[in-house]
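Structural prep section.
Before we set up the soaks we want a predicted structure of the protein with flavin-adenine dinucleotide in place, mainly to decide which crystallisation condition to try first. Input record follows.
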Amino acid sequence: MNKVELAIVGGGPAGLSAALMASKLGIKSVLVDENRRLGGQLVKQTHKFFGSYEHMAGVRGIAIGRQLSEKVMADPNITVMLSTTAVGYYEDGTLALYQREPEEKLIDIKPQTVIFATGARENMLAFPGNDLPGVYGAGAVQTLMNVYGVLPGEKVLMIGSGNIGLIVTYQLLQAGSKVEAIVEILPKIGGYIVHASKVRRYGVPILTRHTIIEAVGDDRVEGAVIAQVDEKFKPIPGTEREVDVDVICLAVGLAPIVNLVWQAGVEIAYIPELGGHIPWHDEEMRTNVPHIFVAGDLAGIEEATTAMIEGELAALSAAEFLGRGDRAEIESIREDAHRRLEELRLTVFSEKVKAGIKKLQNWKELLKQRAGNLRG
Ligand SMILES: Cc1cc2nc3c(=O)[nH]c(=O)nc-3n(C[C@H](O)[C@H](O)[C@H](O)COP(=O)(O)OP(=O)(O)OC[C@H]3O[C@@H](n4cnc5c(N)ncnc54)[C@H](O)[C@@H]3O)c2cc1C
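Run finished without errors. Recording the tokens verbatim:
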């Protein structure tokens, strides 16, 4: 374990692709994931992916996850550690792992390089009653339904009309729940119109310029108060109304899980367009710590398709650091990966991500300017 060339933390699309690319270049890696099976978010994505066929459009996320996981499990260069959480990364380069199964133990490894691909967590919203049973994140609802076969409730209020809110609404309807409404604080729907049209056909109203005021109930959610908002997103008095629901589902964005990279000394940038606090990295997924690389939602909230390519790029950079692989081969794979990333980022939904990436590239300059302004 102390001779590990590469450790990969996180077995979602980014981590899996990183491990496969590293193996292709002859690097042995240890892939760690806290869950009992590989796939990250993909294990619950029963819907078909969008975009072009080159990027797996039309294939269900769950199938993509299965394909990648099978390849990884069969690869002799990759040691998979499931039910294992990376709990710390220390100055001397020790990555501390807590394994729950098959037996509980702590394992320290000292990898020469690390790719962090820890993904993201769901954002919460502040409103009275948000701690009542029956208030869920959309990802949690998806896990309950699509992984464990459990319906979270009968009548749902969805908060947020981005793709996640729309897709999970559709899946709730398919599973037999009634979705009373989707509430969106912005003046327009955030996700793809095709998803919005689908849920509207089922009779679900999408209330733009609306927000949740409070959850109603003593021991569990028994309703929710919603209201219209003005231009400054302030609730308009007199527009409040109660909806009869037993589930409030929050689809209000994701935030990268940065605690480990932060501990590892990676500089953290604040880029709202990419999900808030993210590890500073260049376009080859290198951080300011030379042997640490990042990929996927951790590096900025985007898509599984882009996460996979970023995983490959991170593995190429790790190979370069380790002095492994053929230089010309690395350059040619890299070029192709950047072409695919650019293609994926051609949609209007990528405008925000591209603005975020630009800010990240100029981050150090921005910091200097801000310091100057503060001094001024
Ligand atoms: C409802 C929904 C629908 C989506 N639909 C699409 C779609 O149609 N198309 C698309 O391209 N994308 C879609 N996405 C986005 C996509 O799922 C994510 O962008 C993608 O999964 C990110 O991959 P990742 O590998 O970075 O992170 P994840 O998939 O989140 O994987 C990270 C993994 O790391 C593990 N982990 C975290 N910390 C540790 C630790 N300390 N130790 C060990 N393990 C750890 C996590 O448990 C997880 O298994 C959707 C997302 C959601 C929520």
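Observations: The first helix runs from residue 13 to 24.
Flagged for discussion at group meeting.
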